[in-house]
Amino acid sequence: MNLEIITPDKKVFAGQATAVTFPGTDGQFQVLNQHAPLVSTLGKGSLVVETESGKNTYQVDGGVVEVLNNNVLVLAEAIA
User: DSSP letter string over 48-74?
Assistant: First the structure.
């Protein structure tokens, strides 16, 4: 699936991912390839991106995620 992680300052990640784990405001959840459409708010915590070359972990302070047609767009407030 195609993943983009964007903050107000910059594009943090753009590329293919096999799985993404999010810190949802109501609990952690994971999105896999061909996931059903979804819009959710993000809480503070770890966002884990799994690619064919390994895992990357980002600390987010909140935001929104949209999943549609195998595209995942993350609008994050801040990333460390």
Answer: EEEETTEEEEEEEEEEEEEEETTEEEE
pLDDT of residue 79: 84
* Distance from C-alpha of 18 to C-alpha of 33, rounded to nearest angstrom: 6
Residue 10: per-residue pLDDT: 94
pLDDT of 63 = 97
Say if CB 42 and CB 25 are below 8 A apart.
yes
Mean pLDDT for the stretch of residues 34-47 = 96
Q: How many domains does the chain have?
A: 1
Output the domain CATH number for residue 39: 2.60.15.10
